[in-house]
From TrEMBL:
InterPro entries: ABA4-like. Keywords: Membrane, Transmembrane, Transmembrane helix. This is DUF4281 domain-containing protein. The keyword rRNA-binding does not apply. The lineage of its organism: Eukaryota, Sar, Stramenopiles, Ochrophyta, Bacillariophyta.
């Protein structure tokens, strides 16, 4: 399948969204750490590698689209209206930039849920039975997973000071 309107991204060596799409899978490293190694001493650091990479990819891709594309004109991108966002997402590079944005924030939310639950003393059983399903929701449905954690799970975990002293 060939995507109509697929153009090179100038700041990424002329690669386009289809060329860069496989890099999205790097985020799975972070999610695997959240699920299988939440207490590993290197999880807080290693789980930031993919979001940092994707944040740079996002920045370069968005800047390429806005300032260096064939029809680039940052002043014409209307982020204040639904019509403007729909127009942006008709462009394959726009969809890619939007998806990378989601990937970064979902991973950072998943990381926060993981680190917060560990810091508040969530044990292995609680992690497997409650936190992992919440992480799945955060991965697949972003805000819904975070909301479930904040509204339903977090109130039942120990405050940070008590978790550290016990």
């Amino acid at each position: 399948m060939t995507l109509e309107g697929l153009r090179p991204l100038a700041l990424l060596g002329g690669l386009n969204a289809a060329d860069l799409w496989p890099t999205i899978n790097l985020c799975l490293v972070s999610w695997l750490l959240f699920v299988f190694a939440p207490r590993w001493k290197h999880t807080p650091t290693v789980s930031l590698i993919a979001p940092l990479f994707h944040a740079a990819l996002y920045s370069l891709s968005a800047t390429s689209m806005m300032f260096f594309g064939d029809d680039a004109n940052a002043s014409e991108i209307d982020f204040g209206s639904l019509e403007g966002i729909v127009t942006l997402f008709k462009d394959p590079n726009g969809v890619f930039v939007g998806w990378v944005h989601y990937v970064v924030y979902d991973a950072l939310v998943g990381r926060w849920i993981t680190m917060d639950s560990v810091e508040r003393g969530a044990g292995t059983a609680l992690h497997a039975l409650v936190i992992v399903p919440v992480l799945f929701l955060a991965l697949m449905f972003g805000p819904s997973g975070w909301l479930l954690y904040m509204a339903v799970v977090r109130p039942f975990l120990l405050p940070v000071a008590k978790a550290k002293s016990s």
